[in-house]
Structure formats: structure tokens, C-alpha cells
Amino acid sequence: MAEDDVELWPIDTDDTVQLLLKYDEEVQNPSDQCPRSIFMVPNVYRDLSPRSFTPRVVSIGPLHHQDEHLKGFEVQKATYMHNLFHNVLRPLDSTPEQILKECVTKVSDSVDQIKACYFAMQTYPDSELVKMMVTDACFILAFLYKEDIQYSSLGPVELLYTHIYHDIVLIENQIPFFVLQDIFECTFLKFHPAPSLADFIFLIQNRCNIFEGDLVMGNSCISSTHDHILGFIHKSYQHPDRNSSTPYEIVQGHSVVELERSGVRFSNRLDAEWPMAMELEFSRFLCFPLSWSKPTLKLPVLRLEDDTESIIRNLIIYEHSSQVQACVSSYMYAMDNVIDTPEDVAKLVKSKALVNY
What we know:
Structural class: mainly alpha
Helix content: 40-55%
Number of domains: 2
Strand order of the largest sheet: 1-3-2
InterPro entries: DUF247_pln
Radius of gyration: 25 Å
Number of strands: 5
Pfam family, one: DUF247
Order of helices and strands: HHHHHHHHHHHHEEEEHHHE
Number of helices: 15
């Protein structure tokens, strides 16, 4: 193309400046933003395991509210909510209408705070968002209180229990924890004696535990603030003596086979204060070249179930988007170092550091 054929368009500097200023105004100052702890997982991670992040049965919150394959369960959520107000809370002095009005008022007062918890959320009218929050919070509490509801508009709901627990812990499928707390205070906290919200969440925690043995949370963790249910569960994996998100150190590792050849034995441990604790135990009789004088690497017992991968991936994504300990990432990095081949896995199964369900 000849130089004379190129048509040059004049640049209006003032218009360009105004466009950039308008663009700048549309983006809030990051320093003024609340941490947005509920978001769609970036495709670079989602593509590795799409089923780890997508709810299968029930949508919680706005991010998957329009998913076609989840809309059928909306009727069932309403069934649980109806049962909560008309059966579970019936002994209370307040009428279902009075309790529901209190719930709606509480959530309405914090609607701006709710929006600030989501990143790239579809725009909903405030009334629709409040309805969604109240419905989903009531469903979660009613489901945890009595999962085996006696009647169902969709048939045998008991076949879906495991999938519902899975959906409730996904990072894309959360509501702010303070919403759950507000609804709990308007409903179950009126009982005498009143249960605690932590008692409800412990049911999810136990169903989604990736290790053998019970998870223990100190009173300070229970009483502290949480981003959402996934954040609550993450606290049960955090190291009790660390307060900040210390990055794990990247080191050269060796596989189980390599370590075993060098004289290391493998065993499991269930009595650690921290569920992910690994301990290298040295024998008192190092001078004796016998098998019982070898050092032993004691590992926590990892439960391999259908949803283990999904739970781990969601915990890791949460760690890398929030100012929390990268404890799960650190543990998985250590496991990635010792596992290179199926033979490594077989030896960990034999030592009962891995349990395959």
C-alpha cells in the first residue's frame, strides 16, 4: 500500500482524556474496597477441574443463581424454608410472618455490605438480592438442622445429601457469613437453650474433612469473624501458632521411593494438634544398622473420597485470594514432592498415610 493511501485520523486529546477519566471513575480505589471473598474462579484454574468449582444440585448466592441445571432445586429450597418457619420454629411465641419480617429487615440493612463481598456479580435489584440471601440462609440452616426432611417436591432428596454438602463449601457458591449469622439470630437463637451457629457448621466441617480424625477448633477461631462457610472450615486447618499468611518455602523434594531407599520409613499420625503436621522421628539407636533404627516420617492420614479433590482446590483458591495462612497449599506442595509415581502412592497407602474410600 502506498504511503499516500493511508488515511490519518486526528486525535482529540481532550476527548481521550475524558474517556480515561470516566474509565478511572468506574473503578473504585482498591484501598477503599472490602475484601471480595466470593468470586468466579479464573478459567486458568477452572479448566484444570471444572467439576471442582461448579455446584451440582443447589445454588447458594448470586453467582450461580441463573444456572439452568440448578433451577429445579429452587422449589426444594422453598420447601425447607417453609418447614423451618411453620414446623421447626412453631414453638416460638412469634408468628412465621413476624420472624420472616425480622429476617428481611436484618438483611436489607446490610445489602451494600453484601454486594461488597462479591466480585463481578450480576446486577440484581436490592429486593431480589435480599430475597435470595434470606432464602439461601434459611435453606442452609434448615438443611443442617434436619437434612432428612420428610417430604419433597423432587422425590428422594436423601440421594442428594452428599452433593448438597459439596455445593455448600464451593467458593463460588457462598453467602457472606454475617448474613448466615443474622438469620441464625432471628431464628434458632430464639430457642431455649439456644444452639450455636458453630454447632451447625461443624456438621459441614465433619462431612468435608479431608483427614481421618476429628478437626478441632479453638474458641478464638470459633468466635472470630469468617468470610463464609468455606472460610470457617479453612480455620480448622490453620496452624494454631501462626497468625499471618506466611508463604511456604519452595525446596527440592524427594519422592517416597527415594526417601525409602535412603533409609526413611513412613507411618501415619492422628494425634497431632495441627491436622497437617508432619514429623520426622529419629530412632534412639542410630548406631544400629537395623530396620527399627531407621528415621520415620509420620504423615497425617489423608482421606481420598469422591469430593476430596474439589474441597482441596476450593481451599487453595480461597488461600490465594485472602489474607489467610497458605496451610493447605503448603501441605499439598509437600505431598507433591513425595509423590511422583504410582509406586509412591502404593507405599503411602501401605503405610496408611493415604486411605482410599
